[in-house]
Design brief:
It is a single chain. This protein has two domains: 77 residues, Elongation Factor Tu (Ef-tu), domain 3 (Beta Barrel), CATH 2.40.30.20; 92 residues, Elongation Factor Tu (Ef-tu), domain 3. 12% of the residues lie in helices and 42% in strands. With 196 residues, it is mostly beta strands. It has a seven-stranded antiparallel β-sheet with strand order 10-9-13-7-8-12-11. A six-stranded antiparallel beta barrel has the order 1-2-5-4-3-6.
């Protein structure tokens, strides 16, 4: 489990692509805190560290993950949002983020304001029922508060702290992002459907 509070804007060192998988290598200042077998969130996708080397670690990315997330579009040199798994003895500062991507959205607008960026994402219609104004959502693993949801357009306001600590400031119109809706909404829906 994660919180959506990004610990490092890390850099992709290399990507080795196979027919049905890939191995991604990430350079991060968090290496001293990572052990082989640890869960790490890369752009909101939960992966396992399989190898550590100097200032970087490697993670396997399976074909399903490549299909349903934006990780298949990464290139060497790209920056990714990195978070380590939540510890039981620390504060839950964002919201409950599983690292299980629900869908891919595309950036419609990332415009600079006086003290924030207006960030508009087109989300899959199948996910809009889980999104509410002032609710929580994870975009590329970043815990954010929904400003407004209208049809399939999600508007968020990114403060300077978020822009500095994450890769969202570098996103342009047409870029894709991983979306994870609030898991509580999915549990409620399941419980309600079982009662019918």
């Amino acid at each position: 489990m994660f919180t959506g509070l990004i610990a490092d804007k890390a850099r992709v060192v290399s990507i080795s692509r196979g027919a049905e998988s890939a191995v991604i290598e990430i350079e991060s200042v968090l290496i001293p805190e990572i052990k082989t077998g640890d869960s790490v969130s890369i752009n909101g996708t939960c992966l396992t560290a399989i190898e550590l080397s100097g200032g970087s670690f490697k993670a396997d990315v399976m074909i399903q993950t490549l299909k349903v997330t934006s990780l298949g579009k990464l290139s060497e040199g790209d920056f990714v949002n990195l978070e380590l798994a939540t510890r039981a003895d620390s504060r839950l500062g964002g919201h409950i983020v599983q690292g299980h991507v629900d869908g891919i959205g595309s950036i419609v607008e990332n415009s600079v304001g006086e003290k924030w960026n207006k960030f508009v994402v087109k989300v899959p219609n199948s996910l809009t029922k889980y999104i509410v104004n002032q609710g929580s959502i994870a975009i590329d693993g970043v815990s954010l508060t929904v400003g407004e949801i209208s049809d399939d357009l999600l508007t968020l306001w990114l403060i300077p702290e978020t822009l500095e600590r994450t890769n969202l400031s570098q996103k342009s119109d047409g870029d894709i992002v991983n979306i994870e809706v609030d898991v509580i909404a999915k549990y409620v829906e399941r419980l309600m459907n079982r009662g019918q």
